[in-house]
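Ligand-bound model needed. D-glutamic acid.
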Amino acid sequence: MRPDPELPIGVFDSGVGGLTVLKALREALPKEDFLYFGDTARVPYGQKPLGMVRRFAWEIAGFLLRKGVKAIVVACNTASSAALPELSEALSIPVFGVLEPAAEEARPHAKVGLIGTTATVESRAYERFLPLAWSKACPLFVPLVEEGLWNDPVALLVAKHYLEDAPEDLEALILGCTHYPFLKETLRQVLPGVQLIDSAQATARKVAEALHTLGLLNPQGGGQTLHYVTGDAESYRVLAQRLGEEVAELKTVALSEL
Ligand code: DGL
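Prediction:
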């Protein structure tokens, strides 16, 4: 059965990383309403076993379905690596991940590298879509962003450490974690001249096209976003605001509700 086009779109991530995708979605689909779910009690996902992240993704998808959404955007590379295509095959609403759109953006480049969480890099999920010349897990990047340190000298130090063995002739680098676009300026300082591939716009374009094709665009949405978090609400609000997201409506969800 076709979902009601007036329902919101569910978007989820382990924390604030998915806000990069939410922003692009809002720009591409200004009339849509969104439910954003940040699993801040269990961030980071990237150091956890893939099977555990898969379970988290199922729990959150179930929660969003119970709230009523017409589509789900898995705005997290780790959860996309762990739970797609399985989730989209099982659910009756469209489910979108961030890997394929990023890979499509990167494909025209000759020599492509990947940075991501340990789980994403080790899953080799990106290699399903394109060959990689180099890849590196950067586990400290997510805590740096969640701590609000994306422009701090410590971020530059960590970026230099992770990227020191990147091939000199790398043409493009996939930011294989939705937290990493917040570190773009720092990454550009370390790898000047390398094209940084961020999945947000490409994912938003894909979602907009698919909703249009499926006749699921909201004719009269108000562009509202309701945020759900599993961790502390106030620290989420403050961090999200520093990242440019005004959080008007915010609810805390106990893990036992998932
Ligand atoms: N932002 C997520 C990703 O794209 C999750 C990072 C994490 O929680 O480790 O992989």
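The two ends are 25 Å apart (CA to CA).
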